[in-house]
Each structure stands twice: as structure tokens, then as C-alpha cells.
Write a structure and sequence with these properties.
Helices cover about 0% and strands about 50% of the residues. The chain is globular and about 40 Å long. By secondary structure, it is an all-beta fold. Strands 2, 4, 5, 6, 9, 10 and 11 form a seven-stranded mixed β-sheet that branches. A four-stranded antiparallel β-sheet has the order 1-3-8-7, with no helix packed on it. The protein has no helices and eleven strands.
């Protein structure tokens, strides 16, 4: 059984930083990612880590500010978030795909496993 547990969320002022962590258990696939969902909005892809291709991708809105990484020894996925903006406020979810990454990784409906989320609040 795959379990994903996020941590690291919190409240920060604009310009601040946070690092989210996602510990995966029972997972042996190659694709993990971060998504977020603000109240009243659809869940959106933030960043993806493809460990087989050793590649990453991120949404244009976070490029240059957020960095996704993975520590295989710890079965942990990270999201380093710098220069946070109020519009980054959302519930952040860790996701994993059974095998390789979905064709369109930003489409949250194509992912197989989800954590419960961790709240990030950025004040101006």
C-alpha cells in the first residue's frame, strides 16, 4: 500500500521560504510531483520529478523560485520554495504515479496516489 505524507507547510511573509517534504512508503515507481489547490480553484501542477529520466519540470508561475528534488535513500520528495508570494497560498499535495509520468503531468486526474496535503499561507 502506497502512503504519501507531506510536512513542512506553514505561514510566512511574502519573500520568505519554506521547504516541503513528502515521505513515500510502499512506492516503487518513477514519478512524483507536487500539486496545489487554493480555495475555489482547481488543483494545479507545481513541479514533477522523473527519477527514471532524471528530469524535472515546473509550472511557469514557480520557475526560478521553487525547486523539486528527491532523496532516494530517505524515500523523500522535497519542494524548496523561495521568494514566496501571496498567490502561492494553497494546500500543497504530494502525488505519485504507478509507473512513468503521465503524458501531461500537470493533469492531476492522471495521478494515482495522493497525500493529505500541507497548508502554505503567504501574507503580504
Amino acid at each position: 500500500q502506497v502512503q504519501l505524507v507531506e510536512s513542512g507547510g506553514g505561514s510566512v511573509q511574502a519573500g520568505g521560504s519554506l521547504r516541503l517534504s513528502c515521505v513515500a512508503s510502499g512506492y516503487s515507481g518513477y514519478c512524483m510531483g507536487w500539486f496545489r489547490q487554493a480555495p475555489g480553484k482547481e488543483r494545479e501542477g507545481v513541479a514533477v520529478f522523473n527519477s527514471r529520466a532524471r528530469s524535472t519540470d515546473s509550472a511557469d508561475s514557480v520557475k526560478g523560485r521553487f525547486t523539486i528534488s528527491q532523496d532516494n535513500a530517505k524515500n523523500t520528495l522535497y519542494l524548496q520554495m523561495n521568494s514566496l508570494k501571496p498567490e502561492d497560498t494553497a494546500m500543497y499535495y504530494c502525488a505519485a504515479d504507478i509507473g512513468f509520468c503521465p503524458g501531461v503531468w500537470r493533469n492531476w486526474k492522471d495521478w494515482d496516489y495522493w497525500g493529505r496535503g500541507t497548508q502554505v499561507t503567504v501574507s503580504s
